[in-house]
Amino acid sequence: MMLLAQAAEAGAGNTSEIVLFWVFAVLALGSAIAVITMRNIVHGALMLVLNFLAIAGLYLTLESAFLSIIQVLVYAGAIMVLFLFVIMLLGVDNDDLLASEPTTRVLAVAGGALLAGALVFAFVGPYTSPASVCGPAAPAATGDEVACEGLAAAYGEEDPSGVSFLGRAMFTRYTYAFELSALLLTVATIGAVILARRRDLLPEDEDEADLVAAGTVAAEVEGFELSGDAVAEPAAASGQRRAEVGESVVPGEEPPDGPDEPSGPDRHEREG
Amino acid sequence: MAIGYYLVVSALLFSIGLVGVLLRRNAIVLFMCIELMLNSVNLTLAAAARLWGGPDGQVFVFFVIVVAAAEVVVGLALIVNLYFRRGTLDVDVPQLLRW
């Protein structure tokens, strides 16, 4: 009872935060449920945009304005545009692919409910007490309990949005993680370019196409090795190799090996 | 507002995302549910950052967003390839992971 009274007293200080929290929380949960129940994938993706925007609003109530902006820009902007683009590109906006077996569905919902129950049970006790209320409505420090001042106090007067507070941590303590994330983005870009390369595959003869693709790749690699060897090899060896493949070569007329020279017989092999 | 309410919301969001992953078979929907779960964890980290009044939780969220962006780029390219090769996005199609 006393806890409830204390909570009410603490909450009275910032009514707007509480109102905004409930609005955004209901919006986030409702749109999340819509994402997993919508039959139309485009509608699901738009619901996911709504969910991301609601989470951006929750970041705002958590005094994390920078995260809120990043969330809107990167998630609701870039990532969801990518999702919608792929959905439209593939034209798969209306297929109904629920898990086929009823047992699987029941187990999925039961497992999710079990996880949710366990997590809520873990969080509701210790973290909903007035001691974990932050910001201006936080209760005053008593004994060994430290009042949670929230992030506005940590940001300081001259940095109300917390960007320089965040940047200082990111470029001092987390420098290596920052550099690694740059590397990760580069690798992801290269990977996407390689994966997006068109191979003109058809679903019905994909095994044959796989073999052809593998053979082409192997031949390319071989060609690279040959051209690498040829720089050090004498011209006669290259001429002999040509003779083996069946091309008529006059050894006296053989020009000095260029890097692209041995790709001739290699190409011949591939065509024949 | 006590931090616990934010944690409860993010726990519920995570569970909803998990149910979606288990329930749906469309690869794109699965991917969207994974994004949902990533976001719920981000919310937990931001709430913890406020509870402790430090920058670390927010920096973690920033890096999670960077990794999620990279993951979406590669994952969607894989899904497009999968669709062109298989003609379907059903992840329950047998022999999907054999070769």
Give a written overview of the molecule:
The complex is a heterodimer of chains A (272) and B (99). Chain A is mostly helical and 272 residues long. Chain A is 69% helix and 0% strand. Chain A has helices at residues 2-11, 15-37, 41-61, 65-90, 102-127, 151-155, 163-172, 175-196, 206-230, 235-245, 263-271. In chain A, helix 3 (41-61) runs antiparallel to helix 4. Chain B has one domain (3-86): Helix Hairpins, CATH 1.10.287.3510. Chain B has three helices and no strands. Chain B has helices spanning 3-23, 27-52, 56-86. In chain B, helix 1 runs antiparallel to helix 2 and helix 2 runs antiparallel to helix 3 (56-86). The radius of gyration of chain B is 17 Å and the shape is elongated. The chains are: A mainly alpha (272), B mainly alpha (99). Chains A and B meet through helix 2, helix 3, helix 4, helix 5 and helix 6 of A and helix 1, helix 2 and helix 3 of B.
In short:
The complex is a heterodimer of chains A (272) and B (99). Chain A has 272 residues and is an all-alpha fold.
Q: What is the CATH domain class of the largest domain in chain A?
A: Mainly Alpha
In round numbers, the mean pLDDT of chain B is: 87
Class derived from helix and strand content of chain B: mainly alpha
Using the 3D structure, state the CATH architecture of the largest domain in chain A. Answer: Up-down Bundle
CATH topology call of the largest domain in chain A? Four Helix Bundle (Hemerythrin (Met), subunit A)
| CATH 4th-level superfamily of the largest domain in chain A | NADH-ubiquinone/plastoquinone oxidoreductase chain 6, subunit NuoJ
Distance between the termini of chain B: 52 Å
Terminus-to-terminus distance of chain A: 89 Å
Blueprint (SSEs and pairs):
The complex is a heterodimer of chains A (272) and B (99).
Chain A (H helix, E strand, L loop, with lengths): L1 H10 L3 H23 L3 H21 L3 H26 L11 H26 L23 H5 L7 H10 L2 H22 L9 H25 L4 H11 L17 H9 L1
Helix pairs in contact in A: 2-3, 3-4, 9-11
Chain B lengths: L2 H21 L3 H26 L3 H31 L13
Helix pairs in contact in B: 1-2, 2-3
